[in-house]
């Protein structure tokens, strides 16, 4: 199984991209302007202090509880490298594959806890072994689009364990089950990304929230000046009240577009959508998914294969939520492939 496969590898040669979960919209001026202005300061080494303070204020935490990273992806590497002493690392699947890849790269043996399809991939905290001292879970989860109740995730925290909650897509849900502001849970590290909603995948910006002593250990293995000045400008801008209000509006519009996609998919014979997808993508089960994915490519649409996610297989496809016009074009192509 290729843990290093990502949606961007599906895209290319003029295909309509329903594989990558990055929102593509013009940058608002409150974001574009500080990024552009930062280019005047590129001779200076980056200073993360102002952006760190802004992110800390957003999440009502002291600055020592924030570590800015070159995307959420760097956060997984820091965790895996700094916590090499962990005895039992557990990854709750199906989920984004980079946490497991980073753990393996750092020499950890990884125990997989695979949430069953029969339960709609719902999190059952009892499935995580008691002796796990490093646990990774996603909320909302990529690729299932399941949003776990905050209390179910919080139930995994305990003294002697580092609990890593990947909230790269929390803003797409309006933050309703986020643990970003929970300072009372022992060993909790929340991973956030600014690359999805704000279309900044190429800029590389994200952050970790957690206990100051633990973040200091992670910072110690981070390369010097890991986050570039334009990325710091973006982090500060995205922490402002204006940005948070915009995130809520985007999440509401996304919910309407998602409802449209889910209703259209449920109308196609042979396509199954489980439960209530909560994020910017929808997971579907289609018998012969491998063939359907290829046929969709022939009709000009790229979707994300499911077979590289532990716990899924070739019959699973992940589809990004786009505007209703793109969705309608896609669903009519899907109908054609299902009738073929
Ligand atoms: C669930 C999840 N977490 C984290 C990431 C990495 O995000 P970033 O671009 O901030 O490194 C991704 C990217 O696809 C993701 O899907």
From TrEMBL:
Give the record's keywords alphabetically: Aminotransferase, Lyase, Pyridoxal phosphate, Transferase
The family database entries (Pfam families) matched by this protein are listed as: Aminotran_1_2
* SUPFAM superfamilies in the cross-refs: PLP-dependent transferases
What is the E.C. number?
2.6.1.-
- Note whether Cell membrane occurs among the keywords: no
Query: What PROSITE patterns does the entry give?
Result: AA_TRANSFER_CLASS_1
User: Required co-factor?
Assistant: pyridoxal 5'-phosphate
GO MF term set: threonine-phosphate decarboxylase activity
The cross-references to InterPro entries, in alphabetical order and at most eight, read: Aminotransferase_I/II_large (IPR004839), NHTrfase_class1_PyrdxlP-BS (IPR004838), PyrdxlP-dep_Trfase (IPR015424), PyrdxlP-dep_Trfase_major (IPR015421), PyrdxlP-dep_Trfase_small (IPR015422)
Coiled-coil annotation reads: none
Instruction: Tell me the ranges covered by the Aminotransferase class I/classII large domain, including all copies.
Output: 18-333
Read off the PANTHER family from this record. HISTIDINOL-PHOSPHATE AMINOTRANSFERASE-RELATED, THREONINE-PHOSPHATE DECARBOXYLASE
The family line of this record is:
Belongs to the class-I pyridoxal-phosphate-dependent aminotransferase family.
- Put simply, this protein is called Aminotransferase
Organism expressing this protein natively: Phytohabitans maris
Upper lineage: Bacteria, Bacillati, Actinomycetota, Actinomycetes, Micromonosporales
């Amino acid at each position: 199984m290729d843990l290093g496969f990502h949606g961007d590898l599906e895209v290319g040669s003029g295909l309509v991209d329903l594989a990558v979960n990055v929102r593509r919209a013009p940058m608002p001026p409150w974001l574009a302007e500080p990024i552009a202005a930062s280019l005047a300061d590129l001779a200076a080494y980056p200073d993360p202090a102002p952006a760190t303070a802004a992110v800390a204020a957003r999440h009502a935490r002291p600055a020592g509880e924030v570590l800015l990273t070159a995307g959420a992806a760097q956060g997984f590497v820091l965790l895996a490298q700094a916590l090499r002493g962990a005895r039992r690392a557990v990854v709750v699947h199906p989920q984004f594959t980079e946490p497991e890849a980073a753990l393996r790269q750092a020499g950890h043996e990884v125990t997989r806890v695979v949430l069953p399809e029969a339960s709609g991939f719902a999190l059952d905290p009892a499935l995580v072994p008691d002796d796990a001292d490093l646990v990774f879970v996603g909320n909302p989860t990529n690729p299932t689009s399941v949003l776990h109740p905050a209390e179910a995730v919080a139930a995994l925290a305990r003294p002697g364990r580092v609990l890593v909650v990947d909230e790269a897509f929390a803003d797409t849900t309006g933050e309703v089950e986020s643990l970003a502001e929970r300072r009372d849970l022992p060993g909790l590290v929340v991973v956030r990304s600014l690359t999805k909603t704000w279309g900044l995948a190429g800029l590389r910006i994200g952050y970790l929230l957690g206990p100051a002593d633990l973040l200091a250990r992670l910072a110690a293995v981070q390369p010097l000046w890991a986050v570039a000045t334009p990325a710091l400008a973006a982090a500060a801008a995205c922490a402002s009240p204006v940005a948070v209000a915009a995130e809520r509006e985007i999440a509401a519009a996304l919910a309407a577009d998602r409802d449209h996609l889910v209703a259209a998919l449920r109308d196609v014979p042979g396509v199954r959508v489980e439960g209530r997808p909560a994020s910017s993508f929808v997971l579907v089960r289609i018998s012969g998914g491998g063939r359907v994915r290829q046929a969709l490519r022939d009709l000009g649409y790229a979707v994300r294969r499911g077979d590289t996610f532990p716990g899924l297989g070739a019959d699973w496809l992940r589809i990004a939520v786009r505007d209703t016009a793109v969705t309608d074009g896609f669903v009519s192509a899907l109908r054609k492939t299902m009738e073929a």
